[in-house]
Each structure stands twice: as C-alpha cells, then as structure tokens.
C-alpha cells in the first residue's frame, strides 16, 4: 500500500521531532554547559574576572573606528560583535524566554543566567580560536570559525576534515532554517496579527531589503548591524523597563518566585502549573543556550572578520554578546513577565498563554494595545537582524565547502529568495529540521574547544603578558592622576 503524501510528511515530521528532542536533550545540554565550566576553570575564571575590561573594550576607540585600526581584518571589532549579536538577539529573547518560563516556571530565568555566566568562557574560547586559525580567502577577506579551527588545529587531519566538513554542512542548513525561514515566518505572522498586512507583502519587502544588504557582503552587513542592533536593543529594553517600573510593587513577588522555582523540588505558584527544579533547570539552560548560542560555533565566524591585534582581544569583545543577549535582554523580558503577574494565565481555549503572546500580555498589562505594537516591532527588528547575521554564517560555511566565489553570489540570491518563501509557508517540519541542524553544529565545535583548550589558555597567557596587564595598569594610573 502506497503511503499518501500527507501521511508521509506527518510521519517524517514526527521522526524529526524525536531526533530534535534528542539533539537538544539532557546529554547535549550537559555537554554545552560542561564545556563552559571546564573552560572557565582552566582559564582561572578570567572571562568572568575580566568582564568589565571586555565591556570597556567594546566601546573603545580601537573597537568602533575601523578607519583608525590598521590591524588585519575586514570590519571593526564593534561591527564584528554587532554582526554576531544581530544573529544572536532574535525571537529567542522574546519568544524563547516566555516559553521557558511557561514550561519551566519562573526559575528557568535563573538557570538562563547560570548558563550564560559559563557561556562567557565558551564564547570567549571559540572566538579566540576563530581569530587565531583564520585565513584569507580568494577575495582577500578573512575566513574563520570552527571549520577552520578544526581543519588547521587538529593534528589528526582526517578526523579534522570530517568534523570541519560536518560543521560547515550543518551551518549552511541552519542558515536557511533557523537563520531565515523561521525568522521571516515570525515576522510575517506578527505583522499579520498586529497590523493585518498580508504575509506575502511582508515577505516581499523583507526579501528586497535583505537582498540589498547582502549585495555588499560582510562590509554592508557589519555597517547595517552596527546601526540596527543598538537601536533595536535600546527600543525593546526601554519597553521592558517601562513595564517593570510601572509594576514595581509586584516585582519582589515575581523575583521571589524566580528564586523559589529555581531550587524547589516541588511545584510552586500554588501547584497550578507544576513547575519544578528539574523543569526550571532543563528549560532555563536549553533556552539560554539557544538564545545566546554559546557553544554552537556560529558567532566565531563573525569574530574572525574583526580587525584586531590579538585573538584574545576579540575573544573578550565577542564574549560580551552572551552578556548583552542573556544577562541584559533576556533578563528584562523575564522580569517584565514575572512582575506583570501574567505568567500562568490561560487563553480562551484553556491553554497556558506562552511565547510572544505571553510577552505581549505582560506589556499590555500596563500599556494596553500599544504593548502589542512594541513587542511586534521588537520581533521585526530582532528577526530581521538575525537573518542578516546568519546569511554571513551560511555564506562563509558554504565558501569553506566549495571554495567558489560564484557559489557565494548564488547563495546570496537564493537566501534572499527563501525569505519570501518563508513568509508564506507553514514551517513546522522545516523548523524541526533546521533546529536539529543548529544543535548538531555544536558537536564538532565542542570537540574542537576541548581538544584545542590548551591553545586557548596559551593565547590568553600571551595576551595577559603583552597587553592586559599593561592596559590595566595604565587605566589605574589615569584614574589616580
């Protein structure tokens, strides 16, 4: 008996869903967080101890002004970070936080913080390796990331070739899925629901805008990202702060629930929602890693393009992406939800309100209908920037596989065209497939971090002796003069 198409797709979707649950299951989460813990300890907690230094580096003259920077690279360190943040700060900061707090309870936010703190070491390490092992391509641009770190760093060359190729393949797939289709679909649905604009119009407009930006390559992506990312982050953060301030009386209760739920072995919130320590830990870590991408190996591709005088300087700059994404933006979303009192509320069908709807409900509790506009605009900006950042990741990964300049331009055209397709297509199967590819990227990257951890430590020690100690001393002298 021949299986009809709908039955086949239903079964295929179920298989993908099971694979995806395994890929993003406890084993992977332990590996992701465990690698961060291992690197943090081996680096003697320097990523955490030097966080203040890293944040100052982000906004330094050397970081922002590319024209005053004679170091090797294609874009300024600041533009490199903004490109990475463009891909990192996305729907996960609005939808992911709300989903984590619905499925795992308010305590999930606490475990997002913990995963982010150790994620600083992971993001630092993978960025250091990306700059250290980067190389120039046929056009004279810098290419780097886990595929080059594995290829150039592994002593067992055949194993390095397999792992590097696997990472690049998964990254290309993920760029079309997580980095494109799911992002534009979120934009189109939000615009349809809030402004009643047909999805095909949204898809066409965004596709044209993406195509225009991609024509200029990394230079154009870096310039656009350096403008749009700070604006969108400040815009959304301001909305969250308004909600938090206007619900300040309820905030202590919300924070109390976060801490109680984070450690309680039994359910909290009166037992209505059944949140437990296990669920808070699982969903907090999962959504935290999914949001800041520490350990997935994506952000180092952008780090490799930076004009910098030492791999560790860009490592410190790029690791702040995890701080900005999770400690700042995700925290603001979580506090707005916790303080508003909407967590655990039910919709008309009796289901828990979750995702973007929960964040909209939190904003709407103090702003009314204007709250949905703010969240929708935030989603549009976040998802659009993610599309731009991931286009660069996918292009560089494809370039590693093909070594063809023509393939680069074909990829850009196809990528922009897929934006339109994603706006008008149902994406459940595609979401699972691309989400799985996104998670599989982490496996070769984590192996790379563990195998080459000695190189990370050596480079960090070298940077300490050549730059960090002297710069900290000069800062102290300037402060007391």
Topology, element by element:
Layout: H1 5-23, H2 26-42, H3 46-49, H4 51-58, H5 61-64, H6 77-88, H7 91-103, H8 108-132, E1 135-136, E2 142-143, H9 146-153, H10 157-195, H11 199-215, H12 217-246, H13 251-263, H14 277-292, H15 299-303, H16 311-340, H17 355-367, H18 370-402, H19 405-423, H20 428-440, H21 442-451, H22 453-480
Antiparallel strand pairs: 1-2
Helix pairs in contact: 1-20, 2-8, 2-14, 2-21, 4-16, 6-12, 6-16, 6-18, 7-14, 7-16, 7-17, 8-13, 8-14, 8-16, 8-22, 9-10, 10-11, 10-18, 10-19, 10-20, 10-21, 11-18, 11-19, 12-16, 12-17, 12-18, 13-16, 16-17, 17-18, 18-19
InterPro entries: Na/Ala_symport
Pfam family, one: Na_Ala_symp
GO molecular function: amino acid:sodium symporter activity
Give the uncertain stretches in residue-range form: 267-273
Spatial separation of the terminal alpha carbons: 86 Å
Q: Give the rounded overall mean pLDDT.
A: 83
Count of DSSP strands: 2
Number of domains: 1
Approximately how much beta-strand content do the residues carry?
under 5%
Main beta sheet: 2 strands, antiparallel
Q: Number of helical segments?
A: 22
Principal-axes shape call = globular
Briefly note the CATH topology name.
Amino acid/polyamine transporter I
Look at the helices and sheets and give the structural class.
mainly alpha
- In spatial order, strands of the major sheet run 1-2
Cα-based radius of gyration, to the nearest Å: 22 Å
Shape-level CATH architecture:
Up-down Bundle
Q: Helical content, roughly?
A: over 70%
Order of helices and strands: HHHHHHHHEEHHHHHHHHHHHHHH
What is the name of the CATH class? Mainly Alpha
Keywords: Cell membrane, Membrane, Symport, Transmembrane, Transmembrane helix, Transport
Subcellular location: Cell membrane
Organism: Christensenella minuta
InterPro entries: Na/Ala_symport (IPR001463)
């Amino acid at each position: 008996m021949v299986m009809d198409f709908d039955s086949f797709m239903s079964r295929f979707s179920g298989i993908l869903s099971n694979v995806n649950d395994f890929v993003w299951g406890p084993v992977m989460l332990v590996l992701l967080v465990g690698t961060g813990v291992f690197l943090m300890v081996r680096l003697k907690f320097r990523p955490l101890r030097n966080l203040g230094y890293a944040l100052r580096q982000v906004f330094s003259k050397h970081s922002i002004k590319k024209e005053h920077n004679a170091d090797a690279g294609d874009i300024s360190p600041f533009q490199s970070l903004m490109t990475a943040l463009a891909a990192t700060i996305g729907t996960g900061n609005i939808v992911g936080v709300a989903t984590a707090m619905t499925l795992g309870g308010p305590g999930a936010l606490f475990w997002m913080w913990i995963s982010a703190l150790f994620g600083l070491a992971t993001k630092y390490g993978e960025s250091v390796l990306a700059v250290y092992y980067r190389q120039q391509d046929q056009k004279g641009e810098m290419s780097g990331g886990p595929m080059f770190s594995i290829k150039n760093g592994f002593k067992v060359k055949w194993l390095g070739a397999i792992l590097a190729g696997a990472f690049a393949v998964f990254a290309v797939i993920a760029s079309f899925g997580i980095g494109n289709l799911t992002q534009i679909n979120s934009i189109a649905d939000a615009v349809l629901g809030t402004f009643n604009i047909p999805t095909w119009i949204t898809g066409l407009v965004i596709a044209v805008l993406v195509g225009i930006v991609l024509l200029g390559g990394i230079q154009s992506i870096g310039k656009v990202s350096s403008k749009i990312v700070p604006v969108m982050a400040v815009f959304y953060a301001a909305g969250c702060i308004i909600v938090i301030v206007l619900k300040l009386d309820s905030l202590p209760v919300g924070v109390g629930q976060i801490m109680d739920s984070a450690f309680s072995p039994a359910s909290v919130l009166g037992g209505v929602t059944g949140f437990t320590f296990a669920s808070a830990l699982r969903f907090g870590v999962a959504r935290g890693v999914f949001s800041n991408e520490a350990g997935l190996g994506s952000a180092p591709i952008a780090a490799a393009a930076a004009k910098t005088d030492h791999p560790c300087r860009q490592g410190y700059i790029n690791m702040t992406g995890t701080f900005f994404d999770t400690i700042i933006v995700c925290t603001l979303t979580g506090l707005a939800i916790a303080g508003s009192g909407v967590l655990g509320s039910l919709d008309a069908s009796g289901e828990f309100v979750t995702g973007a709807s929960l964040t909209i409900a939190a904003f709407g509790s103090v702003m009314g209908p204007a709250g949905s506009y703010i969240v929708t605009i935030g989603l549009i900006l976040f998802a659009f920037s993610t599309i731009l950042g991931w286009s660069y990741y996918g292009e560089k990964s494809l370039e590693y596989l093909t070594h063809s300049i023509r393939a680069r331009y074909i990829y850009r055209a196809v990528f922009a065209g897929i934006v339109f397709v994603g706006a008008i297509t149902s994406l459940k199967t595609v979401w699972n497939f691309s989400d799985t590819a996104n998670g599989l990227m982490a496996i070769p990257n984590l192996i790379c971090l563990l195998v080459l951890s000695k190189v990370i430590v050596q480079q960090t020690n070298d940077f300490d002796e050549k730059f960090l100690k002297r710069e900290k001393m000069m800062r102290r002298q300037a402060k007391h003069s």
